[in-house]
Every structure is written in C-alpha cells, then in structure tokens.
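WARN no homologs supplied; continuing
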Amino acid sequence: MKKINFLSILIAAAMVIIVSCEDDEGNPDALDGDTLSGNYTKDVTLEEGKTYYVEGDVIIKSGATLTIEKGVTIIGKSEFVSYLLIEQGAKIMAEGTADDPIIMTADKKETGAWGGLHICGKAPINKTGGTGESEIGGAAYGGSDAADNSGVVKYVRLEYTGVALDDEHESNGISMYGVGNGTTIEYVQVYEGADDGIEFFGGTANVKYIYVKGALDDCIDWTEGWSGKGQYMIAQQTGAGDRGIEGDNNGSNNTAEPYASPTLSQVTLLGNGDDGNYGAKLREGTKGKIVNLIVTGFKKRSIHVEHNQTLLNVIDGSLDVDFAHVDENVSDAAIKYSVSKIANPDYDPNDPESEEEINDPDGVKPTDDQKFEADGNITIGTVTASASTQFDGGTDASALGSFFDADSKIGAGNTWASGWTK
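OK structure emitted
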C-alpha cells in the first residue's frame, strides 16, 4: 500500500482554489442575481421570459456568447453609463419572436437613459489602417473577413437609448462596427433614442425589417465604407429629429476604400415637418443604390446630395436613387445637388451677411441627364404617406441579388411590424 502524502493533497487543493479564483476574477460568468455588469469571458444565457438589468458596461469578450432567449426584458440602469458591447470574436444570439420579442429598455422612459447595443466585427472598414475603436467602450473593430459572424439579433426592440459619455460621444440604438454579413439582423426596432437609431461603421452587414421611430438625430446612418444590403426599412420622426438617412463614405477622406456602397430597397422615410430636416442626406463620397423609396414630411429637403466626390458618383452612376415617390413640399428643393464648400478668405465674423464658407468654384454638378430624376422613375409631387403606405410601380428587388425578397412595391409597408413594435 502506498503512503498518502497529506501535504501534497493540501497543496494541490490550494492550487485548485487559487486557479478557480483567478478564473472568476473579472469574469462573472455566473450572473449576480438578475444583474449583468462587467466583462464576461464565458457563455451567458438570459432565460426565456425573465427580466435582467444592465449596470454600467457589460462586455462580452472574444470567445464568449451572450444568448438571450425569447421574451426576455433587459433594463438599462440610468444611474450608470449602461450598455451592452459584443467584442470581435464574441457573439450575441438574441432571438425573439413576433409574439415574444426581446425588449431592451431603461428604468427611465426617456431618450438617452442608457447606451444600447454595440457589436464589433472583423469585416472591412475604410478608416486609416483598416481598424478602429468603438466610440463607446473603445473596442477594436474592422479587418478583412467580410463574412464574419457576430450572431443573431432578431425580433428585438431597443428603447430610450443614446446616453452621452461626453459632449462628443453619444451612443446609438444599435452601433454596428465592422459587422460582417454572416451576422443576422432582422426585425429590429429602435424607439425614441437620443442619438442615431442604427449606425453602420463600415462592414458588410445585411439587415431586413428595420423600424427606427423617434430618433433625435439620424434614424439610419452609415459611414466608414458600409457595403451591406437592406430591405424593408422605416425611418419615422415623431418629434425633434434630424435626418431619415445620413449616408457618408469617410469624412476625413471622401475617396477612402472600400467605398460605402449599400444597396437598399423598400425604404420609407417619414419626417415630422420641422424646419431644417432632410429626408436623405448623401455626402462625403458615398456610393450606393436606393430603390422603391418613399420620402415625405422633411421640411428642408427630401434628398440632398453633397460634396464633390458624391456628385461624381452620381455622374458615373455608382450612386443612384430610382423608383421613388419624393415630396416636393419643402422649403428648399425636393432633390438638391450641392458642390463642396470651402473656407471663405473674405469671411468677416462681425459682418452678419458675410459667409464663413462659400461654394467651391471647381465643384462639379450632374447635368439633367445624369441626375436621379433623369430616367423618369421618380415621382416628385405632394406625397401623403404613413408607415403602412406602399405604391405600385416599383422595381422587383429580387433582381438586386439573392438577399432580397421579390417585391416591386414602393415603400416598406409595415405589416411585418405588427405586434412587436411601438
């Protein structure tokens, strides 16, 4: 019989305890009751029908998956800067249903109460160096994997997002940083957020059935080279707000590659009639194609194309709007094409009539046969529409690629939004 070395057993037991403590430190894979807070390096599941709280930053680290079952309610605590962040290499599996959606809301029912959802992927972006850091949480994003998969977000409603970290950094409802087209984003509403509803920072993510309602800034925003696809998208202002769509390529370098070049079909943009609002502002070199579009209720302009490179894209056809009903009841122009502006060397801040910027004398503008309206598929007039409105006479979206459903209606309609949206 072998002798038992009790000292060795005690040492081994102590090592197990130490390793266990080290694994748990900063890795709260077991929830603290019903509250999420801090970094998670192991899988976490939020169980069907239950309510959970987000306290401060909740970061799902690379290799971990956050599973959110149907009917879950997540409440962001407004006394903290509370948000959910999915890092590169991590996943979110949030799959609600029309009858049991996932609700991400706040303890205060007001815009800007919490920070929403941030997803970081490895798909291409056009920032210098091909990578960046998220505005909220400082997480890395970008890369070379266009098919990167960050999980599923389906039948999810986000409410009262847009908490501000400082004067320059506010959170959106959903921020998609370099998210790849292996990710599923369908049946998502962002309701009454203080900043943008959904913003794409580059990437290749495709989205379908998106409803942004009551955003105080832009409803749908893209920059840094987003090249994904979208179908059935509603942007609806209910009070103060800015733009239905703001589409940029890159503000620092309008010709940065890969170019922003999304393809969108069945889109409805509904303004609230406030002065200064734009239906769609396409600028800073964006390319893309938007078809089967309704724009109405934006007092300043329905569609505005701005900056030289963006206008060059109109001229060569790499930026196009087709098959649309566009409201002409605006204070400026239903569709306007503006060259870049430059600093005015004669600007006098003491002269109220002096302009700080003037039009670029070397700017370009499309000729009448190069404009969106040239082919005659755009109807400009008085457009009366709601979220449910669709017009006949569009183009079959399925011709744009396999992602798109066969549908030639103009406008998103909203039968798909019944029961799970506000």
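Confidence is low (pLDDT under 50) at residues 1-26.
OK
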